[in-house]
Records
---
Amino acid sequence: MIRSYKFRLYPTEDQEILLSKHFGCARYVYNWALNYKTEYYKINKKGISWMQLTKSNTFFDFKKENEWLKEVNSQSLISSIGNLDRAYTNFFQGRAKFPKFKKKNEKQSFQAPQHGKIDIKTGKLHIPKFKGGIKCIFHRPIAKGELGTFTISKNTAGKYFVSILVHVEEEIKPKPAPKNAIGLDFGLKTFITTSEGSMYHSPEFLKKNLKKLARLQRIQSRRTKSSSNRNKARIKVAKLHEKISNQRQNFLHKLSHKLVCKSQVDTICIEDLSLKGMQKL
């Protein structure tokens, strides 16, 4: 079984610079590989896997032409191409749209698939190229197991996080037969209505913050493009979006806890409908 843990990072100024280099290099390699795979398919009428690409002379020449890529962990660059392959798989299996080029102002991330360590006593995350470790807040215990890939990310609000995969040896117990079940019906006027008749309304966090969001977006649009003031305005907009997202997650967690614990149910049934399609009607 694989478990995932996400923790907040607090890098120093020098570490932020090195993190920016990793984000930029991973993004640059991803975009290069996306362009190469697209052109390769146009010419050869077939795809090329990430393993074939990383072992080819083309990738070797690409790294040779861009010597500055050596400043970051080489495994992170290869993982970036592997992520592109998964994006292609998700597209062909109908789970996502066609991969698009990554932008600097969007969420940034890179992976450290090897030699990652954590030190809970000192509160440090250790990955290649970062001597001394990065300060990390381990706000909950981590299950014992083999550590897998470390994914370091930076959201649009400028906050850093690490997601850790842990391979845990646990026995999968068979699910007991349901005794108490409840059904949830999503609606347009109410958020959900249970089969017991209880109705829960949406707090509408976005609607409550629309005026403030519109004001911040107007300020951002009036700033000169590529200027520091525009970037500061962009961060304010991103922080408000993050706040709204956190409010939604908090509401959903509290509601799900209430349904499971207070209702004392062991099975929740949810209808399989397209809410976006219902809104169009």
---
Amino acid sequence: MQLKVFRPCLFLMLLFAAVWPAFAQEDTKKNDRPPDGATAPVREQNQKQADETRYQYEFAQKDFVISQIVIKHDALGRGEISFRHKNDETPIVEPIELSTGAIGRIFGLWSKLRFLDSTEDYQSSKNFAHLGTYKLIMDDGKRQRTAEFNWSHNPIAWNLAQEYRRVADQAIFIFDMNVARENQPLNAPGLLNQLESMYKRNGLSDPRQLVPLLQELSTDEHIPLIARNHADRILKKIEKSP
């Protein structure tokens, strides 16, 4: 009689031992789930807010071969340049990125001017409008200011305008040389003469940005040999410079 009772009890105990881990595991899974409607916690990202300040330089003289230049860029030195040839209605627009050295000089001058906080008129008492008019524009999203002058005795404002002019001259050379390589290879020697002249008078924003282009030109059989050799000479001068 006892044996008959013991066997069913033993069977139930073994069954319970086999089934219980599954129930316990399922219960644990349920406890690990977020409650209905809950979302996983969002990881905080300590990212510095981007500087939304925009900078702009303009030059205009309707009788010059390049009658208008506009450079727009952000706080990282990235933006675009547009320039218009005399009597052309449609400007040429190209992307532009300032080099690290140019960024340091240009933003240093903007900072020294305290441009948005200043009301200074940079225009000299003398008028040299026949040499072209410059505009400096800054917009930080809350304030915007434009300063216009054709000659200035403020060395910081004048140097800033000249820094941008170097950026423009270098970018225009790159565009003109690319056009010459594709369509007018006989123009390449003259363009390289202009480049060397700009290099000698410190008229380039950052000559080292031109190294990849000059390397290509020195082996480009689409342009005259004299131009290839000239590109190689300029390249060596730039590479040897400190």
